[in-house]
Design a protein that fits this description.
Blueprint lengths: L9 H13 L3 H10 L4 E2 H8 L3 H13 L3 E6 L2 E6 L3 H11 L1
Antiparallel strand pairs: 1-3, 2-3
Helix pairs in contact: 3-4
Length: 97
């Protein structure tokens, strides 16, 4: 019989649940995947996703409000990047599954 693994610390479970709730949508998962390597402009993200600017902005704003993403302005351009690197582990887990 296999030995039972110890339970995760409660703080880790809460953090994982928070991250999973924030990215629990196919578009948001794809955005994290796109931003994994470097920050990108809203326009770049929109083009890579093949969706409207407004839908892209909605998803980005939601993840920024939940602390998953960060943004910076450069003139009229807004660039987004990963604020919480832990979210990349979610994508890595999906690749392994």
């Amino acid at each position: 019989m296999a030995k039972a693994k110890p339970l995760l610390e409660w703080e880790k479970v809460e953090k994982a649940a928070e991250i999973l709730k924030a990215v629990a949508h196919p578009l948001r998962l794809r955005i994290v995947e796109i931003l994994q390597s470097r920050e990108r402009s809203v326009g770049e993200i929109k083009e890579l996703l093949g969706i409207s600017q407004s839908l892209t902005s909605q998803q980005l704003a939601l993840m920024k409000a939940r602390g998953i993403l960060k943004s910076r302005k450069n003139g009229k351009m807004v660039y987004y990047g990963i604020e919480r690197p832990e979210v990349i582990h979610v994508i890595d887990c999906l690749r392994k599954c």
